[in-house]
Amino acid sequence: MKPNDALRKIGEVSEQLNIPIHVIRFWEKKFSPLNPIKKPNGMRYYNESQLKILEKIKSLLYEQKFSIEGAKIFLKNELKKKDKKKKIISEIKALIDEIKSRI
């Protein structure tokens, strides 16, 4: 098994998530956060964050029975929340660094 940070080809992702390759390609067109690395020869490679997005899309569509549009909205809102959390954490770290520099 590949390490978590290794890039995976679309066939490997398809097998790992039990999703047909054509479905993954379709989702790439529908979900903008899903953007694998594409080589000049057309090969697609997915990193760990892309794999997590695919897992979330699969869960939303197949398990939670969202429509594609509903899943797009949900995923967009989830990503916004994560960005806000990252920003807050970054600001807190900056404040801590500033306080440490004054001590």
Secondary structure elements and pairings:
Elements: E1 8-9, H1 10-17, H2 21-30, E2 37-38, E3 44-46, H3 48-63, H4 68-102
Antiparallel strand pairs: 1-3, 2-3
- Helical stretch tally: 4
Query: What's the Cα radius of gyration?
Result: 18 Å
Q: Name the beta content range.
A: 5-15%
- Provide the low-confidence segments as ranges: none
The count of strands amounts to 3
Query: How does the major sheet shape up?
Result: 3 strands, antiparallel
**Morphology:** extended
Question: What is the CA-CA span between the terminal residues?
Answer: 48 Å
Strand order of the largest sheet: 1-3-2
* Secondary-structure element pattern, one letter each: EHHEEHH
Q: Roughly what is the average pLDDT, rounded to an integer? A: 89
Roughly how much helix do the residues carry, as a percent range?
Answer: 55-70%
Structural class, by secondary structure, is: mainly alpha
Could you please describe the fold and organization of this structure?
With 103 residues, the chain is mainly α. It is built from 4 helices and 3 strands, in the order βααββαα. The chain has helices at 10-17, 21-30, 48-63, 68-102, and strands spanning 8-9, 37-38, 44-46. The protein has a 3-stranded antiparallel beta sheet with strand order 1-3-2. A hairpin with a 5-residue loop joins β2 and β3 (44-46). α3 crosses α4 (68-102). The longest helix is centred in the last third of the chain and has 35 residues, at 68-102. The chain is extended. It starts with 7 loop residues before the first strand and ends with a helix.
Characteristic terms for this protein:
103 residues, mainly alpha
